[in-house]
Amino acid sequence: MGSVTQLARLVAELDEQLITCMRCGFCQSVCPLYGETGREADVARGKLALLDGLAHELLSDPHGVRERLERCLLCGSCAANCPSGVKVLDIFLKARAILSGYLGLPPAKKLLFRQVLARPALFNKLLSLAPRFEGLLTKPVDSLLDTSCARFTSPLGQRHFKRLARVPLHRLEPPRSTPAGASGLRVAFFAGCLIDKLYPGVGRAALKTLEHHGVGVEMPAQEACCGIPALSAGDTATFSKLLGHNLARLDPAKFDYMVTACATCASTIHKLWPLMCGSLAPQAQKRAKALAAKTRDVSQFLVETGLVSGQAPAPGPEAKPLTYHDPCHLKKSLGVAAEPRRLMAANPAWRLQEMVESDWCCGLGGSFSLEHYDLSQQIGGHKLEHIAASGAAAVATGCPACMLQISDQLSQAGRQVAVKHYLEIYAETL
Predict the structure, then answer these.
(1) Sign (positive/negative) of CA torsion 202, 208, 209, 210?
(2) pLDDT tens, 322-337?
(3) Which of 18, 216, 282, 425 could form a Cys-Cys staple with 180, CB 3.0–4.6 A?
(4) How far is Cα 387 from Cα 321, in angstroms, rounded to an integer?
(5) β-strands 176-177, 161-162 pairing
(6) What's the DSSP call for residue 167?
(7) How far apart are CA 137 and CA 233, in angstroms?
(8) Among positive and negative, which fits the CA dihedral 175, 178, 180, 182?
(9) Do the beta carbons of residue 276 and residue 93 sit within 8 Å?
(10) Closest listed residue to residue 223, CA positions, set 152, 175, 172
């Protein structure tokens, strides 16, 4: 499908979806960005009103439209609370694709997405070399959180960031195709970029958990990014290339489920692969939809199949307080909230202490944090306050991106609170 034809299709789909918005304003009360700025242009209703005249706006002020659309966390709070069922994220992603098709990508993003991210072997090679030079440009800040900051003036500003893993998951755990064990089930394990390159311990906890429960694992070589960074920027060409790369390595006929420990990957595969695969060949579209239907968060898979069930043990007398942050892509997009808590409750060494507004966005929003770091920090500051108020010794979540944001907040505030994935808590019992 040519680019013009694809853009025309997206515009037509956009027009059909926009008519369902009643402009009721329910999105205002749940939008983290609107909560900070109070600007109508920052809330979903304001952006949808803008898109209602997209054809005109593209001619009069396309750069202004792009700027307003990119001031969004894509957290899905508006869609999850919309009484009319407006698929806000679908609309925004299609609108970003239209704008990028019309204006083109900024040079830096074009280079990053099309020359690096779209080439998994090169992407892996570059990031495997980076830790060798990391010490020259960064300095350690917090040993508990394993965070660093820039030694010199940097585009990253004052943020505290997780250091790259010295050995990524794909080198620690080679490709495999193991048969089903006692469970009678086989899954494909999709690690995702952040688990592979920043949190390989989470990936190993997932594989340990699957092996413990007798689940066979299909883990192909040269897995690519799920595509959400490119798609969020409107780069459908890179998204389609990454999707095609992954589809060639994942045959849904070979396994019962596809699981991931990354909330963002799970939401992207389950919802966005079938939505945005229209430029691929019919057979590839069919495979994308089949994989999407089989995709689950690991906690969802374990509870849904009954592999983790029964009464949780009571916390021990020395149990440490643990709080939990609900990732937007896990709770609001996939409706998964009880399952991670069920897994954590299986570990009597920890006692869950719920924080206030556990499902309020942490403020990262992928590239939103890079382009609007001050706003990202303001939103994340509320999460920091709620974690501190819970009195927890550790905060768990199900999204590596949320782990990055929360670690930055805690590290800058000097809070000695560990950041963990819920699977790491669960795997301690195995």
Answers:
(1) positive
(2) 999 999 999 999 999 9
(3) 216
(4) 11
(5) unpaired
(6) S
(7) 28
(8) negative
(9) yes
(10) 175
- Tokens coding 194: 């952040």
- The one-letter amino acid code at 141 reads V
Q: Does the pLDDT of residue 1 top 50, yes or no? A: no
Do residues 332 and 295 lie in contact, with contact meaning Cβ atoms separated by under 8 Å?
Answer: no
Lowest mean pLDDT among 150-164, 254-268, 410-424: 150-164
Buried b (16+ CB within 10 A) or exposed e, 137-165: ebeeebeebbbbbbeeeeeeeebbbbebb
Let me know the angle formed at the C-alpha of 221 by 218 and 227, rounded to the nearest 5 degrees.
95
Whole-angstrom Cα distance, residue 425 to residue 180?
Answer: 25
Measure the CA–CA gap between 273 and 276, rounded to whole angstroms: 6
- Quick one: which of 382, 380, 412, 417 has its CA closest to 396? 417
Pull the structure tokens for residue 141: 């800040």
Which neighbouring-strand residues pair with 351? 321
Structure tokens at 107: 């040079």
Q: Specify the residue for token string 């595509």.
A: 227
> Cα separation of 224 and 160, whole Å?
27
C-alpha pair distances (Å), 171 with each of 120, 203, 221, 222? 14, 12, 10, 11
Closest CA to 388 of 318, 327, 323: 323
Q: Which two tokens stand for residue 2?
A: 């040519």
CA 204 from chain center: how many Å? Answer: 19
* 16-25, 103-112, 281-290: range with lowest mean pLDDT: 16-25
Query: What H or E segment, with its residue span, contains residue 260?
Result: strand 257-260
Q: Could you give the CA distance from residue 83 to residue 99 in angstroms, rounded to a whole number?
A: 28
pTM for this structure? 0.93
Which structure tokens are listed for 260?
């991931």
pLDDT digits over 90-114, tens only?
Answer: 888 988 988 898 889 999 999 999 9
Whether the Cβ atoms of residue 360 and residue 382 lie closer than 8 Å to each other: yes
